Hints:
TIM Barrel, two-stranded antiparallel sheet
Amino acid sequence: MLSIGSAAVQRIGYGAMGLEGYYGPSDRDTALETLIGEAIRQSGRDACVATKLGIVFEPDQSGSQLDTGWGFPLTINGSTAYVSRAIDNSLQRLRLEAIDLLYAHDPDPGTPLEETVAAMGAAVAAGKVKAIGLSNVTAEQVLQAHAVHPIAAVQYEYSLFRREAEQSLLPAIRSISALMVCWSPLGAGVLTGQLPELTSEDFRRFNPKLQDENLSANRERLEGIQALARRLAITPAQLALAWLLAQGDTILPIPGTRHASRIDENLAALTVQLSEADLRELDALAPVGAFRGATLV
């Protein structure tokens, strides 16, 4: 088990998935928080909830435009007034007295990060939030934020498919004893061994690594990873997750799936023990920067 603030989660983060008003059907902004809040109420059981703030939906709300490369811009707001309002709205939708872990989704280019973190810290002091985290930040921003208020977790893309976090971000996270919460730990599905069929509604179609020309260039490395998985009698997804877990106790992958059967498959990675030779082979197959195509953020 790993600790995030006062909460304990298992090494593969089912139950530690990040929510946010942004996630869910585009015609139902904030739908996921409402849905989870109702599910928690109906279950009658305690739940550890992580959610995010920062992305603005309301047309009358101000913020900074963030060029994402996703085919549309995002509006980000990290101001004190917005943070306070967003927390109260999330608590209302989730039907909770306090949020266990609150992330800032992205730094707001128009607001000092110190202001955003201070506002989140004020919510901790007020008992509305138990721990705070960051997402899609640099090593410098992690240390800058931690100087204002303790940071419990940092979400960032980290997998065999994208290892750039090892250069400076991961050392910074470890230096403050925070967790690295790895989104897209299966490389948007590519590391499962089954290349995704991207429909017009699939958000992953914007991922540069999934463009045809880049997939073709990356195929040989992917085939090498799949070959190692076959030799170990595990699935490519289990190999990718086991590799992440072998990177240290501060690593928490949060794989997503549309199929319930994949949850059991992914959780089985907890029992996989990779040898030093296996890890060296993976280092050779997928060193930092090996895969062609820019990151999604």
